[in-house]
UniProtKB/TrEMBL annotation:
Xref: CDD domains: cupin_PMI_type_I_N_bac
UniProt keyword annotation of Zinc present: yes
Gene3D superfamilies: Jelly Rolls
Organism, as annotated: Flavobacterium pallidum
GO molecular function annotation: mannose-6-phosphate isomerase activity; zinc ion binding
Keyword Zinc (UniProt): yes
PANTHER family (UniProt xref): FRUCTOKINASE, TRANSCRIPTIONAL REPRESSOR MPRA
Active site per database record: 200
Annotated InterPro entries: Carb_Metab_Reg_Kinase/Isom, Man6P_isomerase_Firm_short, MPI_cupin_dom, PMI_typeI_cat, RmlC-like_jellyroll, RmlC_Cupin_sf
Keywords, alphabetical: Isomerase, Metal-binding, Zinc
Pfam families: MPI_cupin_dom, PMI_typeI_cat
Ranges where the Mannose-6-phosphate isomerase cupin domain occurs: 244-320
Stretches assigned to the Phosphomannose isomerase type I catalytic domain: 11-117
Record-given protein name: Phosphohexomutase
Length: 322
C-alpha cells in the first residue's frame, strides 16, 4: 500500500534551562508553562526525545515509526542510502534570557569514538535580538591547549574569544571544534546534526537550582577544540521568492526564502525538506490540500511529495540534505 505523504508537524519538546525565559511563548506561540524554558525541540530523533507527529494520519506516532514505515518516501532516496532509517538532523528554537555557557562540540570521529554518536555541526539564524546582544564564536587569534587551560584557571577565557554583536537575520555556521556561546537576549533557530554531545568549558561561575556549580568538561574539550580563529558569520542575498543560500555543507543545506506571494517547489525525491517559519504566515499547497503556518512553526515535507507551492508573506528557512 502506498504510504500517506503530507507535510507533518510535531509536538514541541520543551526544555527548561537555567538560562531560558518566556519568549518561546510570547514570540513563537509554544505552550510553555515555565519561566525558564530555553529550548523547543521541533524535530528530533535523539534517544529519549523522539518527536511525535501532531497532525494528519500519523498523529500520535513517533517520527522513527513513521520513517520505518516508508523510509525512502519520507527521508528521500539519497538520505536513506547515506543514513539508513536514521533522521540525521535536529531542529530547535532557543530563547536565551541569560548567556549560555561557553562550549564546544566534537567532530564525527571523536563523537563516534567517545559516545557512539554523530558529531555536532550546527548553524544559528537570529530571529530576535535585544539591544547589545552578542555571540561568542571562536578565538580572536591563534591559541593553544595550554593558553586555554590557563585562561580557565584565571577566568579570562572570554578575553581570548571573538565577540560579535548580533541582530535579526544574522547567520552563524559553527563547525565542530568552534568554541561558542549564545548571548543573553537572543531568540535563535538552530539546525544541527542529530547529536546532543556538548562539552561545557566555562559557565560564568553560575550555580544550578541546588546551588552547585554546573558540570564542566574541560579535559574532554581539549582534544575537540579548534584553536585557530574562524570565520563563522555568513553573509547572503535576500532575493524575494528565491531560495537564498545561507549554509551549504556536507550535513545540510539551509536557504532563506523571503516570501512575498508564491513560490513553487520541485523536489527530486533525494531528500526531505524542512521549513521553519521565522516571521509571518504562509500556506503550503499540495494537490487540493492547503496547510497553514505561522511564526514559530516547523514542518517536515516528505521527499516523496515532489511538487507543491508556498504562498504568503513570511521569512522561511528551507533545509534539506544535498
Amino acid at each position: 500500500m502506498k504510504p500517506s505523504l503530507y507535510p507533518m508537524q510535531f509536538e514541541p519538546i520543551l526544555k527548561e534551562r537555567i538560562w531560558g525565559g518566556r519568549k518561546l511563548k510570547t514570540l513563537l506561540h509554544k505552550p510553555i508553562t515555565s519561566e525558564i524554558t530555553g529550548e523547543s525541540w521541533e524535530l528530533s530523533t535523539v534517544k529519549g526525545d523522539i518527536s511525535i507527529v501532531a497532525n494528519g494520519e500519523y498523529k500520535g506516532k513517533p517520527l522513527t515509526e513513521v520513517i520505518a514505515s516508508a523510509p525512502q518516501e519520507i527521508l528521500g532516496m539519497g538520505v536513506h542510502k547515506r543514513f539508513g532509517n536514521e533522521f540525521p538532523l535536529l531542529f530547535k528554537y532557543l530563547d536565551a534570557r541569560e548567556d549560555l555557557s561557553i562550549q564546544v562540540h566534537p567532530n564525527d570521529e571523536l563523537a563516534k569514538k567517545r559516545h557512539n554518536s554523530f558529531g555536532k555541526t550546527e548553524m544559528w539564524y537570529v530571529m530576535q535580538a535585544d539591544p547589545d546582544s552578542r555571540i561568542i564564536v571562536g578565538f580572536k587569534g591563534k591559541s593553544s591547549p595550554q593558553q586555554y587551560l590557563d585562561s580557565l584557571k584565571d577566568k579570562s577565557i572570554v578575553s581570548l574569544l571573538d565577540t560579535i554583536k548580533a541582530k535579526p537575520g544574522d547567520v552563524f555556521f559553527l563547525e565542530t571544534g568552534t568554541v561558542h556561546a549564545i548571548g543573553a537576549g537572543l531568540v535563535i533557530a538552530e539546525i544541527q546534526q542529530t547529536s546532543d554531545i556538548t562539552y561545557r568549558i566555562y559557565d560564568f561561575e553560575r550555580k544550578d537550582a541546588s546551588g552547585n556549580p554546573r558540570q564542566l568538561h574541560v579535559e574532554e574539550a581539549l582534544e575537540a577544540i579548534n584553536y585557530n580563529p574562524v570565520d563563522a558569520q555568513k553573509h547572503y542575498s535576500k532575493i524575494t521568492n528565491e531560495s537564498n543560500t545561507l549554509v551549504d555543507c556536507q550535513y545540510f543545506t539551509t536557504n532563506l526564502i523571503p516570501l512575498e506571494g508564491k513560490k513553487e517547489i520541485h523536489q527530486d525525491g533525494n531528500s526531505f525538506r524542512v521549513f521553519m517559519c521565522t516571521q509571518g504566515n504562509f500556506s503550503l499547497a499540495t494537490g487540493r490540500k492547503k496547510f497553514e503556518y505561522k511564526t514559530g512553526d516547523t514542518v517536515l515535507v516528505p521527499a516523496g511529495l515532489t511538487d507543491y507551492a508556498l504562498e504568503g508573506t513570511a521569512s522561511v528557512l528551507e533545509i534539506y540534505i544535498s
